UniProtKB/TrEMBL annotation:
Gene3D superfamilies: P-loop containing nucleotide triphosphate hydrolases (3.40.50.300). The keyword Membrane does not apply. It comes from the Bacteria. GO terms for cellular component: plasma membrane. The keyword Phosphoprotein does not apply. Keywords: ATP-binding, Lyase, Nucleotide-binding. This is Phosphonate C-P lyase system protein PhnL.
Length: 246
């Protein structure tokens, strides 16, 4: 099976200038291969570096060392660790989505505009994009009364559902999920599960961070645990064999 993403020897350090330039390790020696249409679930204690890995792939952070090879439709095989800002923006626009627990949108953009703009990035017409946005907001049970409201007024769960709607509406090649069910009730979690499975079946590859192991087991093809800088593949009910990934 062809790999969409291959991470080799990834390391990210942060320099603490207030502490005489001391370097703090966010993650190191990370090796990961993600085949097309598969889902890798990441677990680990808070502060282990799980979010740092996702942010290095998305290039919110620039890796200190290592390679992040992505098979881009637009640019061909490309090392995201060394790609230019223009290349990263192009790839994010059409090929890589990111969902976090926190919403980061323009302050005076409505919920409907947030999702519509995301679909417009995929070169849909304005009318079609708006209708698809409405369908996605309705799917995630965001009340229609909120569609023309500014997201800063939303609850934590509403913001997360809007984040999910924005990223999943684009059906990207690669979707990065940072605790996608953190503030959701059981009914909303079921909606997320069904959409994840739908996207997988249509070819989207995913990496997700989870603390809800029961949920992760229902969607992830492989489970990796991050501890002390090393990823370890964990055996689960699907029968994956535990092994250290080096």
């Amino acid at each position: 099976m062809k790999n969409l993403l291959v991470v080799e020897a990834l390391r990210k350090t942060f320099t603490m200038h207030h502490f005489h330039g001391k370097d703090i390790v966010g993650c190191e020696d990370i090796h990961l291969s993600l085949p097309q249409g598969r889902f890798i679930g990441l677990t680990g204690e808070s502060g282990a570096g799980k979010s740092t890995i996702l942010k290095c792939i998305y290039r919110t952070y620039t890796p200190t060392e290592g390679t992040v090879l992505f098979d881009s439709d637009q640019l061909g095989p490309i090392d995201l660790a060394k790609a230019t800002d223009r290349e990263i923006l192009a790839i994010r626009k059409r090929e890589i989505g990111y969902v976090s627990q926190f919403l980061n949108v323009m302050p005076r953009v409505t919920a409907l505009e947030v999702v519509t703009d995301a679909i417009l990035d995929m070169e849909e017409g304005p009318g079609t994009a708006k209708e698809k946005a409405k369908e996605m907001l309705a799917y995630f049970k965001l009340p229609s009364l909120l569609w023309d409201s500014f997201p800063r007024t939303f609850s934590g769960g509403e913001k997360l559902r809007l984040n999910l709607a924005q990223a999943m509406a684009k059906r990207p090649k690669l979707l990065l999920l940072d605790e996608p069910t953190a503030s959701l009730d059981d009914a909303s979690k079921q909606l997320v599960k069904e959409m994840i499975l739908l996207l997988k079946n249509s070819g989207t590859s995913m990496i997700g961070i989870f603390h809800d192991l029961d949920f992760m087991e229902t969607v992830a093809d492989e489970h990796y645990h991050l501890s002390h800088g090393s990823l370890k593949k964990i055996a689960n009910r699907h029968g994956y064999k535990a092994e250290l990934v080096k």
